[in-house]
Amino acid sequence: MTSSQTAPWWQAAVIYQVYPRSFADSDGDGIGDLPGLIDRLPAIASLGVDGLWLTPFQPSPQVDQGYDVSDYCDVDPTFGTLADFDRLLAHAHALGLRILVDLVPNHCSSQHPLFRQAISAGPGSASRDWFHFADGRGENGELPPNNWRSVFGGLAWDRAAPGSQTDRQWYLHLFSAGQPDWNWRNPAVGDLFEEVLRFWFDRGADGVRIDVAHGLYKAEGLPDTAFSGGVIDGLRSNPQVSDQEPVHTVYRRWRRLADGYEPKRLLVGEVNLEPRRAWRYTRPDELHQAFAFAFVHLGWNAEAWAAVGTELERTRQLSGVPPTWALENHDIVRTVTRFGGGERGRARARAALLAMLGLPGPAYLYQGQELGLPEVDVPEAARVDPAWRRGGLCRDGARVPLPWTVDAAGAHGFSPPGATQAPWLPVPADWGDHAMERQRGDAGSARQLAVSALRLRKDLLRTGVFRADDGAQWRVDEGGCLICRRSGGVTVAVAMGDVPVRLPPGELLICSRPAQEPGWLAPDTAAWLLGG
Ligand code: GLC
Prior knowledge:
Blueprint (H helix, E strand, L loop, with lengths): L13 E5 L15 H6 L1 H5 L5 E4 L27 H13 L3 E6 L9 H9 L11 E3 L21 E3 L9 E4 L14 H17 L3 E4 L36 H13 L6 E4 L5 H4 L10 E4 L9 H18 L4 E3 L8 H4 L3 H17 L4 E4 L19 H4 L19 H5 L22 H5 L5 H17 L9 E6 L3 E6 L3 E6 L5 E2 L4 E5 L8 E2 L4 E5 L2
Parallel strand pairs: 1-2, 1-11, 2-3, 3-7, 7-8, 8-9, 9-10, 10-11
Antiparallel strand pairs: 4-6, 5-6, 12-13, 13-14, 14-18, 15-17, 16-18
Helix pairs in contact: 5-6, 10-14
Alpha-D-glucopyranose binds next to loops.
């Protein structure tokens, strides 16, 4: 079998999401950077994951922590240089870790040279066609062109030249005012992004994560959207800006481009849609993966998980691509807190993590999830999330710098000792309790559970017990026990009710809590079982 015939590496891969600002700060400015990440790559490798996805490190005014890109083909000096990126790639590859770069094609920064040029070129110029500029309504253009709302709250429009008597235009930004949306109906935009993809793939990046992958195209003519009595919250409830058919043409082109590399490059999309729409993004000639966010919106409820699991299995059969599991990322409240906080939240988050790693399909872990970090209630004065500033939810609590050491110096080892700046978000007083160094030596820690699960997962894949194309049958057993049975014969069980439940038959492979009473699973505990 030649290498091009073997199954691609990502089919059952586990990828670790790095939020570079909060991973490791090498120069003491309070912000994580690529050299800091390079130094600590061994900690990621020792977890046993297959690769890393880095949230944006490209040049950016950092209005939305890097999701406002002003140059798609460079590294922001805050994070390092292109030479650092090359070093990162080389070190990661030497450790057997793949690297995915974040690609933000829906919008750029209002400081991007093409947007600056569009603003100064004025209404009617070809430069404005790169973005969505439209005349304001009202006698003097004082009203926005339509009723669309920003995902972060407020209008999705701002004046191109506030106060101007001659320029009545507004520009569209589905996120903050610092993030103008590209006009994908202009073919030049597509050409630009193909160049960007080639830039990172030619450098050796193993793939890209595509931000707001279901956005990109807006309904022709930018019509008002219907208010069905509720609020139009930017993307999720505005069909005019989401899931427009031409977006699939983009992914078909990108798939051909990614497949043209040896080895092939991976495309994973942030497709924030219901499973019945999201699966279409992973048809055979489109993206390889699309995050299955469906569980993220569910509480600790076996029926709800089984229903969503069943729906995802149905879509797997339609696309031939398994769900890409993710329970946390930098936009979502940490699972420990989402599932109730405290001891109970910690137990549930561990159970959920073990369950996820046992499901058929690739999975993404968010930095700190392996440490069981809770969401932090960042003091209001220290919050920086533009979503919160515009009246939306605050996502800073999931972005607090990682604790490396028990000792508090350098924000628990995030920054070097003697750092000149405090970390960009304050770390809580008890952060050292979760420190990596403490968990490393503790067989009962959250991190150790993740290490054991990842090791076992690899073994089961190697011996063919886990297969990349396994299907899944979901059900709920007595006492609120969620069951997912893989077609290869492994069962994942999660006790989601309030009472201990009988374990399904089979050999117990791993359990999220030690010292279980034989044959029983305590509440808020997960296990994998073989056979039965
Ligand atoms: C994605 C990112 C989020 C960002 C938004 C706008 O949802 O994950 O952090 O704010 O896109 O780019």
